[in-house]
């Protein structure tokens, strides 16, 4: 299943790191794997029946869940012939594996349990004997693709002063707070407003379930009306081809 999933992600043009492609198997996670986890935008964790038997897998998961807190990494779990509650509460084969770990890896059991509990509470895909695996893989790849930024995070990073302004703008957005926040950027023409907004979008858009960058609002609305912009916005947010009959309909 993982092999087919990896191939489908690669075919979609998504840069995917799979630990057994380049790393020798062992009991300790090497720096290369830690670096790969930390630099990834999304971690796709496939929980199998024997997942908890491996201290390697549990170490990986613990580091991934750390990156959720420290780097805002997105975790997408796949429960492959496993009940999410078994993962969350370490029951069934997971419970059996942990009884063994208590004897052999006593100092790590606490962090592993915490990581499994957090991951098991996330919504993901449950695959069992009634699932159509090819269809599931297609859905997973579609979801991963939609959550990746449409612009590179390095956009305009070489411009002098952009990084300071970008950090200031991000702090004003207060991304982790509740509610809706709107930021207006005011300045003379050619002062870098669009450049700054585009850089912010490229850096933070992957944290959201849906995102859209609309540019040249005034020019586009004068040429084609607001309906065209509404259609573009709704199509990107809803990930469907949306047609708007009127400005009032689009607004509703």
UniProtKB/TrEMBL annotation:
SUPFAM superfamilies: P-loop containing nucleoside triphosphate hydrolases (SSF52540), Toll/Interleukin receptor TIR domain (SSF52200)
PROSITE patterns, A to Z: TIR
Domain TIR, first and last residues per copy: 1-148
Name of the protein in question: TIR-NBS-LRR resistance protein
PANTHER family, alphabetized: LEUCINE-RICH REPEAT-CONTAINING PROTEIN, NB-ARC-RELATED
Keywords on record: NAD
Source species: Helianthus annuus (Common sunflower)
Superkingdom to which the source organism belongs: Eukaryota
Any one GO BP annotation for this protein: defense response
Keyword NAD: yes
GO molecular function, one term: ADP binding
Keyword NAD (UniProt): yes
């Amino acid at each position: 299943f993982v092999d087919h999933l990896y191939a489908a992600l690669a075919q979609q043009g998504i840069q995917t790191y799979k630990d057994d492609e380049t790393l020798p198997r062992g009991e300790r996670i090497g720096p290369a794997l830690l670096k790969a986890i930390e630099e990834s935008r999304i971690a796709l964790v496939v929980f199998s029946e024997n997942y908890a038997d491996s201290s390697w897998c549990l170490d990986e998961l613990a580091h991934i869940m750390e990156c959720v807190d420290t780097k805002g990494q997105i975790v997408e779990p796949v429960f492959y012939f496993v009940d999410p509650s078994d993962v969350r509460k370490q029951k069934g084969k997971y419970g059996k594996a942990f009884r063994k770990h208590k004897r052999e890896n006593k100092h790590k059991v606490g962090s592993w349990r915490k990581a499994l509990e957090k991951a098991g509470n996330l919504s993901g895909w449950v695959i069992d004997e009634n699932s159509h695996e090819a269809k599931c893989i297609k859905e997973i790849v579609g979801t991963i693709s939609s959550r990746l930024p449409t612009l590179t995070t390095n956009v305009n990073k070489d411009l002098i002063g952009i990084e300071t302004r970008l950090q200031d703008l991000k702090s004003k957005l207060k991304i982790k707070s509740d509610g809706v926040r709107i930021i207006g950027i005011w300045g003379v023409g050619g002062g870098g407003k669009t450049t700054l907004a585009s850089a912010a979008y490229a850096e933070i858009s992957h944290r959201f379930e849906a995102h859209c960058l609309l540019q040249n609002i005034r020019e586009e609305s004068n040429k084609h009306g607001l309906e065209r912009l509404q259609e573009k916005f709704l199509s990107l947010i809803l990930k469907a081809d949306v047609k708007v009959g009127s400005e009032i309909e689009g607004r509703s």
